[in-house]
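Milestone 3.1: sequence recovery, worked example.
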């Protein structure tokens, strides 16, 4: 699963990967191939003993190792309570899933990668057009790179497709918001969990998403394993819900629901290793809801500090300024080699993620110093954080 590595954790005793639960465009899946082969052999044996006959079309799995799906529509019986045990509120699990499954959508970006999303609200714009907001992960839309603002394709559970508009995204929380136009049809919106209902370790949960990018509407269930796991992903610390419900590449941006059908989290990561299973993560609903409201209303998260530059690690491993605002003392092409943070007496070596994290942890209006190289000159500049706005 090296194509999906989000962050690598190494210490003397443990080596495992936290990976995106989003499907990239190209991948190899030897473990999936082994599982599929095992299932095929088992089915062949069962059908032989039963006197049936099946023609298995190939003795190998093509390089993508993704099964061809001829019908990925999930059907729910009209008699939703038939043969199902009732929950405390009188509903069955089947009826709960029937009520919420249509709120989860498939997302395919302009770059061809896939993920999931959840319909969470309605809107009416100034032109009286009506539509719906969809919450997903920032890393789902960021995978489109330069084309991230190009429309992504949204597919509903019934196969209806829409072109979406990106309202905004926030890498720190890994949340993005899209919107689609729909003037005629009434779509199903997920219901956010009630903040007064405290989440509890051990409660049953339901995950709905689009694993492998081809299995839209897939339902898995499990338990809430932990409430506040601090996980560092690509240098960014997140406090996430942990679940043992199965999540896979393509589930990114999908919904984690409680047994009453309320949205309690947005699935975004898992730990993947040969000897590890059943450790998935989701962004808690209170954090997701706060960011969602800012992104849909403003296109950015209010209160986030910035210094008005975009940076990257260049091919020489150095921190390079990609662009800078007119008010910044930095220019595109500058190399940042050192940072002296507020309250510090010395410069530390600059890394792109380290600088981003440092700014995220500052208050608006704080001042610090950067040591930069411009051309063949080396000098120092003072910068002050201000509130980011789009």
């Amino acid at each position: 699963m090296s194509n999906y590595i989000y962050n690598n954790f190494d210490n003397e005793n443990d080596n495992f990967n936290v990976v995106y639960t989003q499907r990239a465009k190209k991948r190899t899946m030897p473990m999936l191939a082994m599982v599929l082969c095992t299932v095929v052999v088992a089915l062949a044996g069962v059908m032989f003993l039963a006197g049936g006959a099946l023609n298995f079309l190939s003795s190998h799995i093509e390089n993508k190792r993704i099964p061809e799906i001829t019908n990925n529509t999930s059907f729910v019986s009209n008699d939703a309570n038939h043969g199902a045990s009732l929950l405390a509120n009188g509903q069955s699990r089947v009826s709960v899933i029937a009520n919420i499954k249509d709120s989860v959508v498939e997302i395919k970006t302009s770059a061809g990668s896939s993920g999931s999303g959840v319909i969470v609200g309605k809107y009416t714009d100034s032109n009286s057009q009506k539509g719906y907001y969809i919450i997903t992960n920032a890393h789902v839309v960021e995978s489109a790179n330069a084309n991230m603002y190009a429309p992504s394709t949204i597919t509903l559970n019934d196969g209806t497709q829409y072109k979406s508009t990106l309202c905004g995204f926030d890498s720190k929380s890994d949340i993005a918001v899209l919107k689609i136009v729909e003037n005629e049809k009434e779509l199903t919106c997920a219901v956010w969990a009630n903040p007064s209902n405290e989440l509890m370790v051990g409660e049953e949960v339901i995950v709905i998403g689009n694993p492998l990018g081809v299995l839209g509407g897939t339902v898995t269930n499990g338990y809430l394993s932990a409430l506040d796991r601090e996980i560092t992903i690509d240098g960014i610390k997140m406090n996430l819900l942990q679940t043992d419900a199965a999540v896979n590449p393509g589930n990114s941006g999908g919904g984690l629901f409680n047994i009453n059908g309320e949205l309690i989290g947005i699935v975004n990561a898992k730990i993947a290793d040969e000897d590890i299973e059943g450790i998935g993560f989701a962004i808690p609903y209170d954090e997701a809801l706060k960011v969602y409201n800012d992104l849909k209303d403003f296109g950015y998260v209010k209160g986030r500090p910035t210094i008005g530059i975009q940076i990257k690690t260049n091919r020489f491993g150095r921190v390079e300024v990609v662009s800078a605002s007119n008010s910044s003392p930095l220019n595109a092409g500058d190399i940042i080699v050192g940072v002296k943070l507020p309250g510090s007496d010395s410069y530390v070596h600059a890394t792109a993620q380290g600088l981003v994290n440092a700014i995220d942890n500052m208050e608006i209006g704080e001042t610090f110093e950067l040591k930069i190289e411009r051309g063949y000159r080396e000098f120092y500049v003072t910068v002050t954080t201000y509130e980011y706005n789009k």
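Residues 126 and 235 are 40 Å apart (CA to CA). The helical segments are 30-50, 93-100, 138-142, 285-298, 352-360.
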